[in-house]
Amino acid sequence: MPRIKTDFLVLGSGITGLFAALKLAPYGSVIIITKKSDYESNTNYAQGGIASVFAEGDKLEDHVRDTLEAGAWLCDPAAVQVLVEEGPPLVKELLNYGVPFNLEPSGKFDLSREGGHGKNRIVHAHDRTGREIEKTLLNVVKQNINIQILEYHTLVDLITPHHLKQKGLICYGAYVLSNHTGEVFPILARETILATGGAGQVYSHTTNPKIATGDGVASAYRAGALIKNMEFYQFHPTALYHKDGNSFLISEAVRG
């Protein structure tokens, strides 16, 4: 059984995993694990865009209020504040990486509006924003000599003191399954980042892709991590349903 060592292990190849890998690469070796092809993630299916404050006259506090109202005041206010405040500089980072967002002739973002927003806030790349972000970040990742992507490898479990008959909440890496050979082997890491997405596939009907199987959430739970708000899964408000085939998303922009 092979045993691989790396400085950083990133579980998931969506926007979170790829962005994390790029941030970590200057500090050591990075391995990204994904159970399908490297571009297959929830990010790849996102169409509409990213809500962020760039419009003249828009304010961070307005975005916070709109988000809390749209969430029926069930959102964590602290998390919403972080999302709104850190959003604009991170969107600019994506632009600097080369994501082809729609721009006005002046060079400013061409902002659209979606449901729940009182101002134009949606930074987008036509109606395939997620796909363009995924494609761009993957291209940047593949040019980085410190980052390796292992496709078709599934997370089995996190390696914790529990496996060594010890107490404590420390993670030493993960056991992964090669989908091609059926072999399970450990990848040891100084730091492990969970970026595995959700578990929409636990429901009979979901607008999440087939890869949203909750591997990371289940592994974190078994390792003793605190998980909460597990009832809040996204059911996309606009989708075309067919009983004999996969439902596919229609951009939220159709709601106006």
From TrEMBL:
EC code: 1.4.3.16
Pfam family, one: FAD_binding_2
Organism superkingdom: Bacteria
InterPro entries according to UniProt: FAD-dep_OxRdtase_2_FAD-bd, FAD/NAD-bd_sf, NadB, Succ_DH/fumarate_Rdtase_cat_sf
Keyword Lipid metabolism: no
Catalytic activity: L-aspartate + O2 = iminosuccinate + H2O2
Cofactor: FAD
Annotated ranges, domain FAD-dependent oxidoreductase 2 FAD-binding: 7-256
Entry keywords, A to Z: FAD, Flavoprotein, Oxidoreductase, Pyridine nucleotide biosynthesis
GO molecular function: L-aspartate oxidase activity
GO BP of this protein: 'de novo' NAD+ biosynthetic process from L-aspartate
Pathway recorded for this protein: Cofactor biosynthesis; NAD(+) biosynthesis; iminoaspartate from L-aspartate (oxidase route): step 1/1
Family label: Belongs to the FAD-dependent oxidoreductase 2 family. NadB subfamily.
Protein name per Swiss-Prot or TrEMBL: L-aspartate oxidase
